[in-house]
Write a structure and sequence with these properties.
It comes from Nothobranchius kuhntae. This protein is mainly α. It is 77% helix and 0% strand. It is built from five helices and no strands. It is flat and about 65 Å long.
């Protein structure tokens, strides 16, 4: 399912890069431009799927695994719940991961207000008017 789809898009992006390089060598300007735009669309789509889909899902599963002892559960219980309703289990873990990511981002914003400027220099400021994540995805390499 999901892994196969992501791998397919990664292969598609790789093929577009190879075709783009070939079009550059042969001097096909229109083909080169079209392949470049297609590559950018696939790259941004992959990064968005990773950031909004896969990362929260992994966070949700990790929180579940780390809190097993707190709820007196075992991995076998989680495996049984996944076997009985895989879509519901994946959605709930994704939802827990999204809530975690949201609260973590809110915590960082709160820390920026409380701490002196420059302490969190290594984290991007989401309130910065020059912050444009889509533009960064387009220009920065993967």
């Amino acid at each position: 399912g999901l892994v196969t789809t992501i791998l397919g898009y990664i292969l598609l992006a790789g093929a577009l890069v190879v075709c783009h390089a070939f079009a550059s060598l042969v001097k096909f300007q229109r083909s080169r431009r079209l392949l470049g735009v297609c590559y950018i669309v696939v790259k941004v789509s992959l990064l968005v799927v990773m950031e909004i889909g896969l990362f929260p899902l992994i966070c949700g599963w990790w929180l579940d695994i780390c809190s097993l002892e707190m709820f007196d559960a075992t991995l076998k219980d989680r495996e049984q719940s996944f076997d009985s309703a895989p879509s519901t289990t994946m959605f709930l873990h994704w939802l827990v991961g999204m809530v975690y990511v949201f609260y973590f981002a809110s915590f960082i914003l709160l820390l920026r207000e409380v701490l002196r400027p420059g302490v969190l220099w290594f984290l991007r400021n989401l309130n910065d008017p020059d912050f444009n994540p889509i533009q960064e995805m387009i220009h920065l390499p993967i």
